[in-house]
Design a protein that fits this description.
homodimer, 385 residues, alpha/beta, Arc Repressor Mutant, subunit A, Nucleotidyltransferase, domain 5, 11 helices, elongated, DNA-binding transcription factor activity (chains A, B)
């Protein structure tokens, strides 16, 4: 069997990559162990791993005292801190920024409140301040960041804007990627908050074992994010999951049943009103229980539409109202039973309000991995950096 | 760079496959041409292609007279007729069986009418007779068939049955795969008719250029099949696309507007009634136009639910009513504009009532290809045969 020059060049690339993947997610490894994992010869591994150390992808671990006979073997580890990623949640009420290394280990999280009525310039200024605080606290600069994702509310179009619809004031023409490109030179993604939350549930949440997931954001707003065959469903124009725009689905009306419940304190803001109703229902208040039943009845129509369209494995209940899953899940399940041919499993999110930033981190890390898998392995630095 | 034994064995398999793929879909090729296409050396190609001829995957073409200097080079072609596939549409009113070679070239089609009220045993007997007629006409036996797919109406569960729902009398416990396994030894797939029609549109229909497709079956029944990221969406339990089960979507009521149109001949069967209404609307009949408007209004709710959930590139209008697309498409487009954030392109199917059997052929061919790509290349015979 003849092997051409092209084959050899491809094979060297493949072999370098297989060393990187054999190092990642494993404890520090010897050349012999790497040879075993990759099927490559020891001399070949030795050459390849030295090159990875030179390039900054791998580090040598000082030999321990475990080997009792002769000189202990040198061990190599993947340098997960060779680069970092950011997930930035630009929410209605908060800015949340999370920093991780290349293996997704969380390094630092910084959060600042945002004014719901702030215009895009003011909101982006808060983003900048939050990023400043995080980088300073981590002892890093922008060039340490290899990839970042911004989460926003509303479907994100190809230009990274929420031109179709967004509840954030003035935000339909805002360009968060363009703004951040002024300081970060790494690739910047912008993605819808529900989609990022869905990604987070599969990465670190309650849906790690599933490939077909409907994520339901249940809160003052109602929304959905879809993972299909293990892949985030963006849609041809970035607008997948926007079933709530259909009037027949009644998601726009659903939270109103909670706000309209008799007995809600007049001074309560929407989120507080909902919390009051859930607590009252928990304590047996008949009117509150009716309000919750009406809410879940309307919520269920949109969930059923997604379940019937996609037949997922799991529906994850997330968003602010998921803290009251104890009284939402049962009536939601009953309503879904009426509508659906077959019911997926219902699970409650445990990620709290970090899910959007977490999902952003995951997308940024995926993007970094994709670039590593293509031509850029030989140069372990921030791409475009 | 050392190359281990495992690498070499994998490489031999890969190289055999690359010869097969370099032969397929190309005119008869010389060893030199194959070497150019695959990047392998001429001597290596010579050895590999001889083995493929011996095994029955490739055939030698007699040299033509084109080479004017010296002996013309031998040419090899992929033996597309080494095996065949069947697509079987078990419809309410007809049984349609299509036969193709391994490259999807249609060899023969046989169709027989079916009694809508026939029980499963009678319907499967008609399937057998139709298959008998086709095999006899093609001069083949069951062992010439390497893969087959059966299309049925209703979502198909993991056992190949339509246990959740089907309009075919008695069919919810019928086992078409089990029945056909009595005569065919190749793998047998059972799939929902709308799903197969969607596959056919991407293979040979109006959606060949798209990866994200909602196929709409518009006829006496209304249904949908989804292609997402180029892959048929089956759903976790085989029930994707069943949005019509949701009452808020009004698909169950939609065709009734046509049947209820004043002036429809009392003797007309449902399909004839619809055709009468479409023709009357075409001629300007005001009541018929109202009926069509009501029909498309209800049809649009379900289409909008799928478009909002998935944000596809294309919606294909198929099914019996697609013959009247000239008067359905415009009002459907207007209704969708009201509901959707962004509109996909609307196209009309041109495959007629062969789309289900065609989609079945495609799935059977995909299955054969998958088996070829795994361990079975070295033995070019019907798997399990």
């Amino acid at each position: 069997m003849a092997t051409t020059g092209t084959d050899l060049s491809r094979m060297r690339e493949m072999n370098q990559l297989s060393i990187v993947w054999a190092l990642r997610g494993n404890p520090p490894s010897t050349v012999t162990e790497l040879a075993g994992r990759t099927g490559l010869s020891r001399p070949a591994v030795d050459v390849l791993v030295q090159a990875l150390v030179t390039d900054g992808w791998a580090a040598v671990e000082e030999p321990g005292a475990k080997s009792v006979v002769g000189r202990p073997a040198r061990r190599y580890r993947f340098r997960a801190d060779a680069g970092h990623a950011l997930g930035i949640d630009i929410g209605v009420h908060k800015i949340l920024v999370m920093l991780s290394d290349l293996e997704g280990n969380l390094v630092r999280t910084v959060r600042r409140p945002a004014d719901p009525e702030a215009d895009p310039a003011a909101r982006l200024a808060t983003v900048d301040e939050t990023v400043d605080e995080l980088l300073a606290a981590a002892g890093m600069t922008e060039s340490d960041i290899w990839g970042l994702t911004v989460g926003v509310t509303g479907p994100v179009d190809a230009s990274g804007r929420t031109s179709l619809f967004t509840p954030l004031p003035g935000w339909s023409t805002a360009d968060p990627a363009g703004h951040l490109a002024g300081r970060f030179r790494c690739p910047i993604q912008v993605e819808n908050d529900c989609k990022l939350a869905a990604v987070a549930e599969r990465w670190k949440g309650v849906a790690q074992d599933a490939d077909d997931i409907v994520y339901l954001l249940a809160g003052i707003r109602t929304g959905a994010g879809l993972i299909l065959d293990g892949t985030l469903r963006r849609g041809h124009g970035g607008a997948a999951g926007e079933i709530g725009a259909l009037k027949a689905v009644r998601w726009l009306d659903a939270p109103g049943h909670l706000a309209a419940c008799p007995g809600v304190p007049a001074s309560a803001r929407p989120g507080e009103a909902a919390a009051w109703v859930f607590q009252a229902a928990r304590e047996g208040n008949r009117e509150a229980k009716t309000a919750v039943r009406r809410y879940t009845r309307d919520l269920a129509v949109g969930v059923a539409a997604l379940v019937l369209a996609l037949d997922p494995e799991i529906v994850v209940l997330g968003g602010g109202f998921s803290r009251s899953a104890d009284i939402i899940l049962d009536p939601l399940h009953r309503e879904l039973t009426k509508h659906c041919l077959r019911l997926p499993e219902l699970r409650t999110s445990t990620l709290g309000d970090e899910s959007v930033a977490l999902g952003g981190l995951r997308l940024a890390l995926d993007d970094i991995d994709d670039r590593m898998l293509s031509a850029e392995l030989a140069a372990p630095r921030a791409p475009r950096g």
